[in-house]
Specification:
heterodimer, A: Serine Threonine Protein Phosphatase 5, Tetratricopeptide repeat, 2 strands, 68% helix, B: 419 residues, alpha+beta, 13 helices, 13 strands, 21% strand
C-alpha cells in the first residue's frame, strides 16, 4: 500500500487540546498551545445574495415533519401527559434512526426529561430513555435501566429486545440468550427467532442463523418495508461473516431496495464493498450522502484504498469531523475512528489505543476486528488478549476475523513473524483495487 | 400477522433494535469564542457559531417551509436569533454580568453544515474582569446533549471548555485583579457623573456665585426682623418670602483670598457631607427611596438659588452646602449602584468614585473662581448671572422638583433641559 500520508500532523492531533479539555471539563484553564484552528475551518463570511441556500432541513412536505408538528402541539397542550411525551419522543428517535441524525436523540431526551425526574418514572418513559442511552452508546447505563424496567414489567417486549441488543453488543451472550427465550415467550416466534438468529450469527453458528433468518425473511405483504429490510441487513452481515460474498451482496441490495438511502445500510454495505476490493462501487454507493459522517468515512476509506488524488482533501475533511466530535467529548465513533486511523491514516499505535478504549464499551464483530488488526499492525499480539479470550468464550466466527486470530496466535511465541503477517492481514481486509 | 401487529413490530424494532454503529451526524454543537481587546480592557469580542439546524428547530428559520434555509431567511431573522441566543448566555466579569451588544451577522461552514455566526461585544461595563465566568444555557430546554465549545483568547493565552445543559458554568482567571485600573475607571466615572449631573453643578454654582461678592444692607431694619434673619441664617433654613423690595445690594469683594476662603468652605462642607452619605449608602447602612433623594436634590438647588435672590444665609453658605450635601451623597450612591460594583472591588470603586466626584467638583471650582473674580464688579455678573441666572435655576429646579416628587412629566420641560 502506498503510504504517502504517513504520520505527519496526526500524532499531535488527538493528544493535544481535546483530550486535556475533557479531563478538565467543565473548568476553564489556560493552555499555552494554540487551539485557534479548532472552531471553524474557514473564516465566517457573508453570503453573496439572499437566495443562497445555506442549509437543508426537513421540509414541511415530509409527512414525518408534519407528524412532529401534530405531536408537538398535542404535547404542548398537555405537558403533564407522559403518553403524549412518549409519542413525540418516539417519533424523534425513529426519525433520528432513519436519517442518522443524532440531534433527534437530544430532542427526544428533552421531551421526556421532566418525567424522568419523577420518583418513579413511567415505564414507557424509561424505555425511551434507555433506548436513547443505547443509541448514544451508553450501553451500561441503558442496560441498568432496562434491567430495572424488566423488574417492574417482566414481559415488556420492547425492553427485552433492547436489552438483548445491548447484551449482544456488550458480548454478554448468556444474558442475550435468556432474553431471546423470554422474547419468544412474550412476543411470539417472529421476534424470538430474529433474536436467536442474531445471537447465533455472533456465536459461530452462521448456518443455523441463516436457516432461522430465512424462516422470517419474507414476512408477507402486510409488513412495512422497514421490517424485511432490517432482516435482510442482518442476513447480509451473517452471510458476510460466513464468507458468502455473493449472498451477502444480494441481501444488501434487497435491503437497500426496501429502504433506499438508509444511512446504516449504506455504511454497512460500503464497508463490505471495500473489504471485497470493490472500492469504486463503494464510492458510487455513498457518493451522494457525504454530509453523513458514516457515509463520508466509507468514501474516504475507498478513495484512500484506490489512492485517488481526492483522498488527501477528503482525509483532511474527515479529520476535521473527528476533531469536532472530539471537541464535544463524543465517544460513539471510537471503532470507526480506530479503523480510520489504521487503514487510512496508517497510525496503528493510535488506532490500538482507541480500539482498546472502544473495547470497554462495545464488542460487536467489527469491534473485535479493528482491535485485532490494530494489535497486529503494532506488533503487539499480547495487547489482543482480551479480544482473543472473548472469541474463545463466544466462539465468534467471521472470515474477516479468523485469519487475524490465527496470525495472532501464531505470533504469540515468535514475535519476528509479525511484520509479515500484519501486512498480510491488511492486504486481505483492505486491499487495493489495483 | 395483521397490519396492526406489523406496525407494532416495526415500532419495537425501530425503538429497540437500533443499529450498533454510530449515527451519521454528531449531536448539536455551538462554538463560542471570546477574545480580550488589547485596547479596551472592559470589552470582550465574541463570536458564536450556532447551527442553522438548531436555530430552525428552536425558533423556526425556514419561513417558507421548503426545507431550504436561505441567507435571506437568516438575515430577516437576525434580531430574533440574537435575542434568542444572547439571552441564553451570560458573560460575567468578577460576578457582574457584562452587557451583550450584537455587532454583526455572518455565516460559517462547519463539518456538519452551515452555522449562523453572531458577532457581539460583551461590555463588562465598570470593571476590568479579572475572573471571567461564562454561563451557557443555549438549548438547555431543547436538547440536553447540546454542547457549547467555548474558547477564550486572553492576550496570548487560550483556554477552552465544553459546556452544556448539565454543566453550564465555567470560570477563568484572565488576569490578576487590577484594582488600580478599576480605581482609575471609577475616578473617571465620578468626574463624569458630576460634569453630566447638571443638578449637582447648578447647586454648587448657586452657592458659589455670591462668594466673590459682599452683601450690603440698604436700610436698617427693626430688631424683630434682624432676630428672625439671624435665626434663619444660623439654622440655614429657607427664609419666609416677603413681598418687600430687596433689602440688600451686592458689592464686589475687595480681596481675593476671603472670596477664595468662602469657596473652599462651601466646597469642603459639600464634600464632607456627601462623602458620608455616599459611603453609608454604598455600604448598605442608609437607604432612601430614589424619588425622595432626587426630589431632595431638586429642592436643594431651588433653595441654593433662592438664597441668591432673597438672601437669608450669606456668611455661612457652607451650611447650606453641608446640609444638602447629605442628600447629594445619596444621589451619587444610586449613580454608583447603577454602574454595578464588583464585589471584590468595593474599596476601589467607592474610593475611586468619591475621588472622581471631588476632582470633577474642584475642576468646576477652579474654572469658576478666577472668572467670577474677574467679572465680579460687572453688571453682567451681578445682575445677569447672579439674579437672572438664579431665577432661571429656581425655575429649572422647581420643574425638577415637581417632576421628581410627583413622578410626572411636564410637557416640553425635558426637551429644554435633561432631567
Amino acid at each position: 500500500m502506498n503510504d504517502t500520508h504517513e504520520g505527519t500532523v496526526d500524532e499531535v492531533r488527538r493528544s493535544s487540546c481535546c483530550v486535556v479539555l475533557r479531563l478538565f471539563f467543565p473548568l476553564l484553564f489556560m493552555l499555552p498551545i494554540p487551539l485557534a484552528a479548532q472552531t471553524a475551518r474557514d473564516a465566517p463570511y457573508i453570503p453573496a445574495n439572499d437566495s443562497v441556500v445555506l442549509q437543508l432541513v426537513p421540509p414541511r412536505t415530509d409527512p414525518r415533519v408534519r407528524q412532529f408538528d401534530q405531536l408537538r402541539s398535542d404535547f404542548s397542550a398537555h405537558p403533564q401527559d407522559a403518553t403524549k411525551a412518549v409519542l413525540l419522543a418516539t417519533a424523534y428517535v425513529d426519525y433520528g434512526r432513519s436519517t442518522g441524525d443524532a440531534r433527534y436523540l437530544g430532542r427526544a431526551m428533552a421531551v421526556i426529561q421532566p418525567f424522568m425526574a419523577l420518583p418513579t418514572p413511567p415505564v414507557p418513559v424509561m424505555l425511551i430513555h434507555a433506548t436513547i442511552q443505547q443509541s448514544r452508546h451508553f450501553f451500561q447505563a441503558s442496560r441498568d435501566e432496562l434491567t430495572q424496567i424488566l423488574k417492574r414489567d417482566p414481559g415488556n417486549v420492547q425492553a427485552l429486545l433492547t436489552l438483548a441488543t445491548v447484551a449482544m453488543v456488550q458480548g454478554d451472550h448468556a444474558l442475550a440468550n435468556r432474553l431471546c427465550v423470554d422474547l419468544t415467550n412474550n412476543a411470539g416466534n417472529f421476534m424470538g427467532m430474529i433474536c436467536s438468529a442474531s445471537l447465533r450469527s455472533l456465536s459461530g453458528q452462521g448456518a443455523q442463523a441463516d436457516a432461522l433468518f430465512s424462516y422470517v425473511e419474507n414476512p408477507g405483504p402486510k409488513a412495512p418495508p422497514a421490517i424485511p429490510a432490517w432482516i435482510e441487513g442482518l442476513m447480509a452481515d451473517n452471510a458476510a461473516r460466513m464468507g458468502l460474498a455473493d449472498q451477502a451482496d444480494a441481501h444488501f441490495k434487497k435491503a437497500l431496495q426496501l429502504t433506499p438511502g438508509d444511512n446504516f445500510l449504506l455504511a454497512d454495505y460500503g464497508e463490505f464493498l471495500i473489504d471485497h476490493v470493490r472500492a469504486k462501487e463503494a464510492i458510487d454507493l455513498v457518493g451522494g450522502d457525504t454530509q453523513s459522517d458514516t457515509s463520508f468515512l466509507v468514501l474516504v476509506t475507498a478513495e484512500k484504498a484506490l489512492d485517488l488524488p481526492k483522498a488527501k482533501a477528503d482525509m483532511a475533511e474527515m479529520d476535521a469531523r473527528f476533531r469536532s466530535m472530539d471537541q464535544r467529548g463524543d465517544h460513539v465513533f471510537m471503532r470507526e475512528e480506530a479503523s480510520y486511523l489504521l487503514h487510512v491514516e496508517h497510525d496503528p499505535k493510535a488506532a490500538l489505543d482507541l480500539a482498546k478504549q472502544n473495547w470497554r464499551v462495545q464488542r460487536a464483530p467489527k469491534d473485535v476486528r479493528v482491535y485485532l488488526e490494530a494489535a497486529l499492525a503494532t506488533n503487539d499480539p499480547a495487547a489482543a488478549k482480551p479480544a482473543l479470550d472473548f472469541i474463545d468464550s463466544t466462539h465468534l466466527k467471521d472470515v474477516t476475523i479468523d485469519p487475524l486470530v490465527a496470525q495472532l496466535r501464531a505470533a504469540q511465541p515468535d514475535r519476528s513473524a509479525l511484520n509479515v503477517s500484519a501486512s498480510a492481514s491488511r492486504s486481505f481486509s483492505r486491499g487495493s483495487d489495483r | 400477522m395483521n397490519l396492526q401487529r406489523w406496525l407494532y413490530a416495526l415500532f419495537v424494532i425501530a425503538i429497540g433494535f437500533s443499529p450498533l454503529s454510530a449515527y451519521a451526524h454528531k449531536e448539536s454543537d455551538a462554538y463560542l469564542t471570546l477574545r480580550t481587546d488589547t485596547a479596551n480592557d472592559h470589552v470582550m469580542h465574541g463570536q458564536w457559531d450556532i447551527a442553522l439546524r438548531d436555530l430552525d428547530y428552536a425558533i423556526g428559520l425556514d419561513s417558507r417551509h421548503d426545507g431550504a434555509i436561505t441567507w435571506g431567511e437568516v438575515k430577516a431573522q437576525r434580531k430574533v436569533i440574537e435575542d434568542y441566543a444572547l439571552s441564553r448566555l451570560e458573560v460575567k466579569g468578577d460576578g457582574l454580568t457584562c452587557a451583550m451588544q450584537p455587532t454583526g451577522q455572518k455565516i460559517d461552514e462547519h463539518t456538519d453544515g452551515a452555522y449562523a455566526v453572531i458577532l457581539f461585544d460583551a461590555v463588562c461595563d465598570k470593571n476590568i474582569p479579572s475572573k471571567l465566568t461564562v454561563v451557557y444555557r443555549l438549548m438547555y430546554d431543547l436538547d440536553p446533549y447540546h454542547r457549547g465549545i467555548v474558547t477564550i483568547h486572553a492576550g496570548d493565552k487560550i483556554a477552552g471548555a465544553v459546556l452544556g445543559p448539565s454543566d453550564p458554568v465555567a470560570s477563568l482567571n484572565l488576569r490578576e485583579p487590577d484594582r488600580w485600573g478599576e480605581f482609575k475607571s471609577f475616578v473617571t466615572d465620578g468626574i463624569w457623573h458630576i460634569w453630566t449631573g447638571i443638578d449637582h453643578i447648578l447647586f454648587l454654582l448657586s452657592l458659589l456665585l455670591p462668594a466673590v461678592l459682599i452683601r450690603r444692607r440698604l436700610q436698617p431694619r427693626g430688631d424683630g426682623w434682624r432676630a428672625s434673619a439671624v435665626l434663619a441664617e444660623t439654622s440655614g433654613a429657607l427664609m419666609a418670602l416677603t413681598a418687600q423690595p430687596p433689602q440688600y445690594r451686592w458689592e464686589a469683594s475687595p480681596r481675593f483670598w476671603p472670596a477664595c476662603l468662602d469657596v473652599i468652605k462651601v466646597v469642603s462642607a459639600f464634600s464632607l457631607s456627601h462623602s458620608v452619605t455616599l459611603s453609608l449608602a454604598v455600604l448598605g447602612i442608609v437607604h432612601l427611596p430614589d424619588r425622595l433623594v432626587e426630589s431632595g436634590i431638586a429642592l436643594s438647588v431651588m433653595v441654593a438659588a433662592l438664597n441668591n435672590i432673597y438672601p437669608v444665609v450669606h456668611k455661612r453658605v457652607w451650611l447650606i452646602a453641608f446640609a444638602f450635601g447629605f442628600i447629594h451623597g445619596l444621589g451619587f450612591a444610586s449613580a454608583l449602584a447603577g454602574l454595578q460594583l464588583p464585589a471584590g472591588a468595593m474599596a476601589a470603586s467607592l474610593g475611586g468614585f468619591s475621588v472622581g466626584v471631588e476632582i470633577g467638583q474642584e475642576a468646576i471650582v477652579l474654572a469658576f473662581l478666577p472668572l467670577a473674580y474677574m467679572l465680579r464688579k460687572t453688571w453682567f455678573y451681578q445682575v445677569v448671572l447672579l439674579r437672572w441666572g438664579s431665577l432661571l435655576i429656581i425655575a429649572l429646579a422647581t420643574g425638577w422638583l415637581v417632576q421628581r416628587a410627583f413622578n410626572i412629566l411636564i410637557p416640553g420641560f425635558s426637551a429644554i433641559i435633561p432631567n
